[in-house]
Amino acid sequence: MEFNPFGGSRIQRETRPGRVPPGQTVTKKFPELHVGAVPAFDPSAWDFRVYGEVGQPLVFSYDQFMQLPTVVRLSDFHCVTGWSKLDNEWEGVSFLELMRMADLKSVARYVVVHAEGEYTTNAPLEDMMSEDVLLAYRHNSANLSPEHGWPLRLVVPSLYAYKSAKWLRALELTVEDRPGYWEVRGYHNRGDPWKEERYAL
Ligand SMILES: Nc1nc2c(c(=O)[nH]1)N[C@H]1C(S)=C(S)[C@@H](COP(=O)(O)O)O[C@H]1N2
Ligand SMILES: [Mo]
């Protein structure tokens, strides 16, 4: 029988050889991991921006953002510290759709991800231009908790989870790469879990 990543029993899926990247341990829990305190959310003060190398810079109020069409994607989540959480159902706005709306310029090569406060992260567009990259506000059929990034977080399943910024406020499209909070503190600039790109030694 052909392997179907969205079907079959949970046990079959989790034990499929090669499902989990090297050096990772599967957890059923959903750890809460971040630097600093969970930021307060005030819908009337919140906005979300897309700027930089785009033909049409975007700015959304909270109400406007919540009107955008949503998608649901199933993906695995791999933290650089060694835990993986499988089969996460994320719901939110597709990164690809947002780039269409912003008229992404062909010179753009990187995304600088801006969260509340000090946290930023960076990723090459080639990792971001994927159907499973979302700006998510729901996880497993429930609104995100404040600890997991409410009202909005990025989800980049193909890279370690430090790229999946919680409390997302802006995406900046750039020509040059600009390493983020953890990337300048020793985490790998790319962070591909399948290559175990954990730390830049
Ligand atoms: N804004 C912000 N986003 C963040 C972080 C952070 O410190 N601040 N930590 C990252 C790391 S290292 C991980 S493993 C995931 C954890 O997400 P979770 O707390 O929802 O499990 O969030 C990522 N996003
Ligand atoms: Mo992490």
The main pleated sheet reads as:
6 strands, mixed
The low-confidence parts are 1-9
Q: What is the count of β-strands?
A: 11
Estimated helix fraction: 10-25%
The first-to-last residue Cα distance is: 43 Å
Radius of gyration, in angstroms, nearest whole number: 17 Å
Bound heterogens, unique: the ligand Nc1nc2c(c(=O)[nH]1)N[C@H]1C(S)=C(S)[C@@H](COP(=O)(O)O)O[C@H]1N2, molybdenum atom
Category from helices, strands and their pairing: mainly beta
- Helix count equals 4
Along the chain, the helix and strand elements come as HEEEHEEHEEHEEEE
Provide the β-strand percentage band. Answer: 25-35%
Shape: globular
Overall pLDDT confidence: 94
Explain how this protein is built.
The protein starts with 9 loop residues before the first helix and ends in a 27-residue tail after the last strand. A hairpin with a 4-residue loop joins strand 6 and strand 7. 29% of the residues are buried. The N terminus is likely disordered. The chain is mainly beta and 201 residues long. Strands 1, 4, 5, 8, 9 and 10 form a 6-stranded mixed beta sheet that branches. It has a 5-stranded mixed beta sheet with strand order 3-2-11-6-7. The radius of gyration is 17 Å and the shape is globular. Helices cover 11% and strands 30% of the residues. It contains 4 helices and 11 strands. The protein binds ligand MTE and molybdenum atom. The site of the ligand Nc1nc2c(c(=O)[nH]1)N[C@H]1C(S)=C(S)[C@@H](COP(=O)(O)O)O[C@H]1N2 has 17 residues, from loops.
